[in-house]
Amino acid sequence: MPLPVIANIYRCALLWDNGAGATAVNVIHVRLGGSISDDVYNLLNTSVAADMWRSVSSEFKINTVDITPLDGTTATSTYATAGATQWSGHGSAAWVAACSAIVKWPTLTRGRSYQGRTFLPFTGESQINDSALVSTDRAAMQTAWDTFRDDIVTGGGSIVVASYGLSVATDVELPVVETSLATQRRRQDRLRT
Predict the structure, then answer these.
(1) b/e per residue 1-23 (b: at least 16 CB within 10 A)
(2) By C-alpha distance, which of 159, 53, 51 is closest to 115?
(3) All residues at 6 or more sequence positions from 62 whose CB lies less than 8 Å from its CB, including other chains
(4) What's the pLDDT at 34?
(5) Domain boundaries of the chain, sorted by first residue
(6) Which of 158, 155, 137, 172 lies closest to 50 in space, CA to CA?
(7) Per-residue pLDDT tens for 9-27?
């Protein structure tokens, strides 16, 4: 499916890598009027915090962020994070491929096209207890994701759920870090040889 055209919306692909061949991508969408990709990256870079990735193994970093304006014409811009701490996983080094912490993106509009989720990859083994996030890690992540969303708003933007089928974007109210973990079979299948 081609990318939709939605004014002032930027597709931000966060590219995870451990330098040994295991990769994953998380996508979030940001609304920022009258801006360019540089502005969006600068807002992200000053808003992300290490505890957002507390479930992710410390072997992994978001080394690059690809930002694509959903304007139908502008090319994707790639930004290197320079290995900054706020872009790095902070879980135990031993990781599980198919297990993901979930950040839900609820909006005030009902329906599948208006609800989003981010499956954080490569959960550290020490962050798991009976198929759930350890409660102290979940609480720290919740606080960090709430602050991230607030910082984006303070910076003049918003986190949105972008429906590619409807070509609309809806503002997220407050993110929710779920206690229960989910599976990402696609990620595990990619790692099989």
Answers:
(1) eebbebebbbbbbbbbbbeeebb
(2) 159
(3) 14, 15, 16, 53, 81, 87, 88
(4) 87
(5) 9-191
(6) 137
(7) 999 999 999 989 899 999 9
Full DSSP string of 42-97 = HHHHHH--GGGGTTBBTT-EEEEEEEEETTSSPPPEEEE-TT-GGGB--B-SSEES
- What is the token pair recorded at 178? 């779920």
The CA distance from 28 to 189, in Å, is: 23
Structure tokens at 181: 């973990």
Cα–Cα distance measured from residue 123 to residue 17, given in angstroms and rounded to the nearest whole number:
13
> CA 174 → CA 9, 144, 147, distances in Å?
18, 12, 10
- State the Cα–Cα distance between residues 36 and 54, nearest whole angstrom: 30
Predicted TM-score (pTM) of the model is 0.92
